[in-house]
Amino acid sequence: MDRNDDTPAQPERRGQRRTPLELQVRVHFAGRTMPVNAYLADVSTDGCYLRGVAAPKDARLALGFTPGRGRVCLATGRVVRVDTSGFGVRFDRRNVAFENFVAQITDYASFEAA
Q: Which of 24, 67, 94, 104 could form a disulfide with 75 if both were Cys (CB 3.0 to 4.6 A apart)?
């Protein structure tokens, strides 16, 4: 079915605009012993969308990556949406390095769009 039909659009529930990117991250799911690699497809201070790994709705997870210069970005959250391409995560905790990284890429994306 075509999404251009008369079906009403889903309302936007995100508090922050997501910035697109393609960054490999390590994801550790609660209850599993080994972390897995995934791709961070978009991110905001409130959440993200991950590709390359499957997850059930409501799964708890931690993710991390190193963007350079000795910084380690960490966040924890819960899977809030699952589709055929990946899943959306709502964060409940982020470290300062993570928040600074998101602020920097958001500023850069805003500059590029102008």
A: 94
